[in-house]
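My convention is simple: the sequence line spells out the residues, with the fold written below as integer tokens. I include a record here:
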Amino acid sequence: MKKKLFILFLMTFGLFANVAFCQNEIEIPYDVGKNYEEGLMHIQKKEFLDAFRCFKYAAERDFPPAQYELGICYMYGEGAQVNMTEAFKWLMKAANGGEPMAYNKLGWIYNNGIGTERNLEKSMYWYEKGANAGDPYAQYNLGTNYLRGNGVAVNFAKAKYWFEQAANQGL
């Protein structure tokens, strides 16, 4: 009975699409992996609102890859309005959950002070964490900061090292 009332509620308020697009989350409420995968498929099809709904469902259930994707949705306005505060929140959750793709994005956010206060020490921390995890973009950004002395002392040897690491991965 509760399930039928819930479906009626969703249909009444135009939220039923979330149920249909995200693999019957009412019937499979703990299938966060499936929702995450569906979100990725919606992104490929440029169905951003549907992807956002799926990522949000999985992200709210503490799935770091979905938290990262939800942060990206907020960052670039894919399925939601651009909201850098929300982007920062979800990317931080993803990074704290061990999602390596979030590290470089947090480095950029702290480096630019968008969605949070500018903090070059934290920027370097996240760039370094991403670089050590093998992210070529974080390696490039870390090299740039060493080259420019952005948040650290200028260090051409470290800049060269990180640029080479990024280049070795095709960046």
Notes: The CA atoms of residues 131 and 139 lie 4 Å apart. The two ends are 56 Å apart (CA to CA).
